[in-house]
Amino acid sequence: MVFRLVLGCGAVGRQVAERLAERSDGRLLVVTSDEAVVETLRDESIPARHADPSDPETLANVEQPDVVFVGGDRTDVNRSALENARGRFPGASIVASLGGNPTLSDRQTFSALADHAVDADGAIVERVIDETASRSAEAAIGLRQELATIDGPLAVVTHDNPDPDAIASAVALVDIAESVGLEAEACYFGEISHQENRAMVNLLDLDLRNLSPEDSLEEYGAFALVDHSRPGVNDGLPESLDVDIVIDHHPPRGPVPGSFVELREEAGATSTVLAEYVDRFNIGFDRATATALLYGIRVDTNDFTREVAPADFRAASILWPHADVSLLQQIEQPTIEGDTLETIARAIKNREQRDSVAVASVGRISNRDALPQAADQLLAMEGVETTLVFGFRDEMAYLSARSRANDVDLGETLRDAFERIGSAGGHADMAGAQLEIGILASADDEDEVESIVSVVEEVITKRFFEAIQSRPGTSVGTYTQTSEWLFTLEE
Q1: Where in this chain does the record put each RCK N-terminal domain (predicted)?
Q2: Per-residue model confidence as pLDDT tens digits over 101-118
Q3: Is 121 left (phi over 0), alpha (psi -120 to 50) or beta?
Q4: 93-97: strand order across its sheet
Q5: Which are the contacts of 480, defined by CB distance < 8 A and separation ≥ 6?
Q6: Domain identity same for 317 and 181
Q7: Is 441 part of any domain?
Q8: What does pTM read for this prediction?
Q9: Nearest to 173 by CA among 144, 199, 194, 195
Q10: Last residue of a domain, which of 297, 332, 367?
């Protein structure tokens, strides 16, 4: 339950108090020096106290609020109330009205102490309500409270082989944690191999730690997951790890652990959520972080054309003035490696198409990030609406899928087909999976390896076509070949 404290009850403050009283998600207390207003509010069953909101003694006996709204009409009274509230409640989210006649010094003080300063001359009640009671505001309050309880350092962990959205989200959460005095580090398992992802990290000089499964985690006092939601699933963490914070935009498959969990499925990117948090914490945008977040949103929404939401546009508008556009252009136009072009060529050559669904194995790969690029290239072919491209590296099979068909949910499709024998998930129009093919390690020679790979290719292709076929409203041609003995992988 959220506890909201209103200090001062002027023209805006009165309307805000009455609107907040209508909410059923928390408690409210109004403190004002106007005794008549106190009586009126009490008649309306709104908790109110007669006291001077600018007097430090007034706050001495008030319990810690989650949100404070300073809503008097006079600038000098609001400034004193703001200064006292920030000193008494350092962990609260504070929204303050500037009052009737603020000076430059007043504006600077309000900007420094309040999470959000509202100019009363142009304020509307809906704006203030949004800052004090919206879902994202309450989530920011919850995150602030959780960070305040953590005895760091905090490890902010992305999913394996992170993409721009995961990288940017981790860096932004580190900025937020450090703004409240908590030591934090952005971490990932695997590698950053896609040329655009490497360009992003290098050009923006982002600070990331590459963990290996053998590394000890004892140096960290707490853990946060970004852009995924379960430890041990698409990351190198133990499945039994206690997680403190989870921030993601993917639909979960099963229970999500964590003291603070924000799953914003309607957002097109986790970077959107983190951009809102940075803005609401009022810590200012580091240029590299803002550029990374903007790029993360653009990649995950395919330049605002795929699973995009109004929140993504709002976040982009917040980030744009702080981002380095010239660096963004360099990140988006890196050189393409020869191996990537060869992988794309093999996908086109080896594709097997049934109706509008194309599946391709590219065999052994050196760079797994070439797979989504190959899947995108197949999707651009005439008559193709859904693609799956997969390849092998060490003892793993990596899968990447794309779709522009309205009747296909790739995230669910890949989970149905492969989750029992690996990890799989994603969105309706793009998803991926990883399958451990341990049998490759026991092969004695290259011919035997190639024979096993051929059978695995057949099984992956079959299972994907069958999973597509089983989804409501979809239809693909019949796939008849099978090698049932390989289904022992499920055991």
Answers
A1: 5-97
A2: 788 888 889 988 988 888
A3: alpha
A4: 48-50, 26-32, 2-7, 67-70, 93-97, 116-118
A5: none
A6: yes
A7: yes
A8: 0.59
A9: 144
A10: 332
